[in-house]
Design goal:
mainly alpha
Length: 88
């Protein structure tokens, strides 16, 4: 599955409880308007301003475990670098 918006991966870094409280009840990868969903969790979200800050907070291992598309990205980058990706 391809992800339409980078913010869909960022949504995985929020707790399940936070996502539930923000009415994000589906898998983040299936949400249309992930930027809008992020703004319910991170008030005043502006991609050019806040995306790097939220990216730095990602728990790569956890997001990879939860997201098939993110796992595919990790495996693809590992392959490009000529290394074996760590076990999921």
């Amino acid at each position: 599955m391809s992800v339409r918006e980078y913010e869909a991966w960022l949504l995985w870094s929020f707790s399940e409880r936070d996502r539930f409280n923000a009415r994000i009840l589906r898998c983040p990868e299936t949400i249309r308007d992930a930027k809008g969903a992020i703004s319910r969790l991170f008030h005043g979200y502006l991609p050019a301003v806040h995306q790097l800050q939220l990216t730095r907070k990602i728990d790569v291992g956890q997001v990879r475990k939860d997201s098939d598309s993110f796992d595919k990205l990790v495996r693809g980058v590992a392959q490009l670098c000529g290394v074996v990706p760590p076990a999921r």
